[in-house]
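ARCHIVE CARD
CATEGORY: sequence design from structure
SOURCE FIELD: tokenized fold
FIELD CONTENT:
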């Protein structure tokens, strides 16, 4: 028995790892070639369906610092449905994961599931066969007879088979760290034709919406205080602590800033160009901070770290001010037709 997504617009090439073309955010020229495991698969699914993911990045402008870390950004499900017609929500597994995934694929609906990266061959050299870690994948095609599965993960479309299939979708899953995975049903029943969606206009609408949700204080200033409070801890915990700290702080800041810049760029209005430039600067500075924090983790000083941290705070303030000013003017000028 074989099941596969049958959504209009998701062509054979898009379903084939061999013919897959990444969204530009996942190509080498991107500051962060991966965002996070949840956002990455949505970026590529929307791209494969012919929809621009950039309108969904507008939520990044309202990101917050959260006492120990920076916000782990996810797709806003309401924004997703309003822009693309895709409905998504948690899906309870009570008949068995493989059975329910196969049923939904047969109806043309992909499934987002938690998986153990130990069994995902695209993580070879990092987790595959080496380390058990939770991640998110979107299953597009599954065949229990051949034990083959095609899935979106991180920045690409991949294929696995054999024992890997058994441990991701079958009975072998009970041996991993996600025996009862969190799953989401992605309903494509109401999927809109991308030709009927003005992505730039939707981006402008969502930027105005999320600008009104943005925190009153500068979230990067709050994050820098979190980082400073962890300097001694970082020296005590070395590189193991460094990787955990950076993932929750500088990496999330860098990704969120990159996506905020991408949304403002996609809005296609000149008033937002200062926001694009400032959020791009924050994204690059977050990357720089990671190298500087690594020196602290190794017991060395970093004379540039304080200046980089202060600059990121200022650039975020500049970006937020440019966006708020544009939004307060009713969205500013529309691009020339």
């Amino acid at each position: 028995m074989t099941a596969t997504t049958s959504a209009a617009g998701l062509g054979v090439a898009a379903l084939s790892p061999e013919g897959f073309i990444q969204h530009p955010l996942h190509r080498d020229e991107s500051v962060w070639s991966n965002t996070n495991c949840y956002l990455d698969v949505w970026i590529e699914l929307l791209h494969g369906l012919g929809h621009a993911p950039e309108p969904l990045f507008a939520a990044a402008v309202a990101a917050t610092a959260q006492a120990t870390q920076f916000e782990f950004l996810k797709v806003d499900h309401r924004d997703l449905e309003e822009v693309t017609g895709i409905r998504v929500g948690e899906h309870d597994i009570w008949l068995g994961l493989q059975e329910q995934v196969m049923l939904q694929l047969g109806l043309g609906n992909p499934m987002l599931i938690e998986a153990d990266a130990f069994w995902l061959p695209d993580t070879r050299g990092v987790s595959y066969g080496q380390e058990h870690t939770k991640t998110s994948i979107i299953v597009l095609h599954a065949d229990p007879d051949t034990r083959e599965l095609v899935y979106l993960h991180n920045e690409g479309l991949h294929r696995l088979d054999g024992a890997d299939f058994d441990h991701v979708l079958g009975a072998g899953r009970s041996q991993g760290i996600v025996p009862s995975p969190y799953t989401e049903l992605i309903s494509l029943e109401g999927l809109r034709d991308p030709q009927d969606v003005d992505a730039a206009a939707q981006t402008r609408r969502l930027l105005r919406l999320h600008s009104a949700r943005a925190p009153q204080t500068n979230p990067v200033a709050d994050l820098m205080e979190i980082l400073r409070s962890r300097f001694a801890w970082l020296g005590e915990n070395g590189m193991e602590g460094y990787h955990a700290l950076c993932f929750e702080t500088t990496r999330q800041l860098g990704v969120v800033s990159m996506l905020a810049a991408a949304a403002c760029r996609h809005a296609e209005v000149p008033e937002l160009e200062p926001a694009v430039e400032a959020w791009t600067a924050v994204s690059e500075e977050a990357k720089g901070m990671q190298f500087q924090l690594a020196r602290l983790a190794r017991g060395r000083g970093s004379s540039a770290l304080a200046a980089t941290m202060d600059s990121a705070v200022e650039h975020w303030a500049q970006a937020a001010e440019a966006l708020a000013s544009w939004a307060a003017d009713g969205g500013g000028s529309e691009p020339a037709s």
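CARD ANNOTATION: The first helix runs from residue 12 to 15. The CA atoms of residues 265 and 276 lie 6 Å apart.
SHELF: design records, drawer C
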